[in-house]
Amino acid sequence: MFDLVSRAPANAKNDVLSGLTVALALVPEAVAFAFVAGVEPLVGLYAAFMVGLITAVFGGRPGMISGATGALAVVMVSLVAEHGVEYLFITVVLMGILQILAGVLRLGKFIRMVPHPVMLGFVNGLAIVIFLAQLSQFKFIDDEGALRWLENQQLFLMLGLIALTMAIIRYLPRLTTAIPSSLAAIVVISGLVISLDLDTRTVGDIASIAGGLPSFHIPSVPYNLETLIIIFPYALILAAIGLIESLLTLTLVDEITGTRGRGNKECVGQGLANTATGLFGGMGGCAMIGQSMINVNSGGRGRLSGITAALCLLAFILVASPLIEMIPVAALVGVMFIVVLGTFEWSSFRIIPKIPKSDAFVLILVSGVTVATDLAIAVIVGVICSALVFAWKHAKHTQVTYEDVSGSRIYYLRGPIFFGSVQNFLELFDPSQDPDDVIIDFQRSRVADHSGLEAIDTLAERYIKAGKQLHLRHLSPECIRLLAKAGDLVEVNVIEDPDYKVATDELA
């Protein structure tokens, strides 16, 4: 229903026009997130410019837009409140260094461990967060300083302009694709408001965006161990949130465009951007799913779109602030509402009754935690829950069959032996009921971790106490080396024995 993605191939015209559209949408977002973090609007705008430009040039995902984000701002606010903005700048520098290290160490590949239900929950949760963030534009501060909702004529005018914006974006592509529909909607709504002198909020009512070029500035903080102790926890959390959001957004853009970005290169690009931003008075940032969706929806595919967005944003700050401040907030809210509709996976309502209950639970859980806390916690919770469900399911897959041959009983084991299945594994055997000679064949099983090794040792000890002969077949050489009590019971066959590693902290 809401397949709003442009299928146009990459070209310079599409990239430039979509970049201009993104730049217009970046302004209120950057200003709003600066307020959330407790810093001046220009700190957010400089971050959007520098992070956007550097990641567009050096990042691993052409067409993805980066800038100041709310996920990072909510973490920054306590640091700024307790220690001041200079500590924020040095924290952003350290955040960037940690992200560069993550890229150099090739940690970006671990994004593959995020299950699809977690991805769906991330997308849905972030769509809800984007939607809720727009609701602040329906509030105003009255003469007594209280925050109140718009009422009567102002509310209906705001809703009408938003609806018109969304209608233009939705239906203009059926008439022409010469210019991005989002850009056309912003221009039309702005012209309508200015020509009819409609009383509605504009970008200038939020904050002035006029300023100069960002200047190099070494953060004014004591460079000692005490400062490092203060900023390192914040830098680590910000680096993790930034990379998780960026890599998940990269994966989403990959799926939409049918291309593949480079996760480790994106980690390095994000790190370079944040390191530079902290040294030029910016609040840091990461990939922005909303603006990335606007860019993709408008036909932006190449690096030129991100570069154009950043340079246009700088031009707004330097010379075009009076014009940009005339844009109605309703037009930008309408654009973001379309992003919400295009981002939310509406198919999840259809598939929830059909997928396993555990996957449906993870999907809903990640969506809720994303809204309630932040993206990093939501993804970590989702991955942990998915891993526990996976372990529980596979713990029940360990089975055994047996046959009696020449007075010996041969057990044929199937399924992995790991921390989740060891209890079931031990319950499969009863030494008191077995004959004097027992063989356990591991040819169709695999010992995965140290818990599995301990379980084999425990079982061997039970058979020895029962006075039975136990033989273990087809264990890997590493298993044999790591077994403490049962190592001497293994029958070695250099031709048939498997060769694999066991996840254990013990040294061979």
Characterise this structure.
The chain is α/β, with parallel strands linked by helices and 508 residues long. It has two domains: 334 residues, no CATH class; 96 residues, 2-Layer Sandwich (Transcription Regulator spoIIAA). The chain contains 20 helices and nine strands. The protein has a five-stranded mixed β-sheet with strand order 5-6-7-8-9, covered by helices on one side. Strands 1-4 form a two-stranded antiparallel ribbon. Strands 2-3 form a two-stranded antiparallel sheet. A hairpin with a 2-residue loop joins strand 5 and strand 6. Helix 6 packs antiparallel against helix 7. The two termini are 58 Å apart. The N terminus is likely disordered.
Instruction: Calculate the mean pLDDT score and round it.
Output: 87
Shape: elongated
Q: Strands across the major sheet, in which order?
A: 5-6-7-8-9
Q: Helical amount among residues, as a percent range?
A: 55-70%
Largest sheet: 5 strands, mixed
Secondary structure tally, helices: 20
Strand residue percentage = 5-15%
Please give the number of β-strands.
9
Overall tally of structural domains: 2
State the low-pLDDT regions, or none: 1-6
Query: What is the rounded Rg?
Result: 29 Å
Task: Report a brief summary of the structure.
The chain has 508 residues and is of the alpha/beta class. It has helices spanning 12-37, 41-58, 70-83, 85-104, 116-134, 152-171, 181-196, 203-206, 225-257, 263-278, 289-297, 303-318, 321-324, 329-343, 347-351, 357-372, 375-395, 422-427, 450-465, 477-482; strands at residues 66-67, 139-141, 147-149, 286-287, 399-405, 408-417, 437-447, 469-473, 490-491.
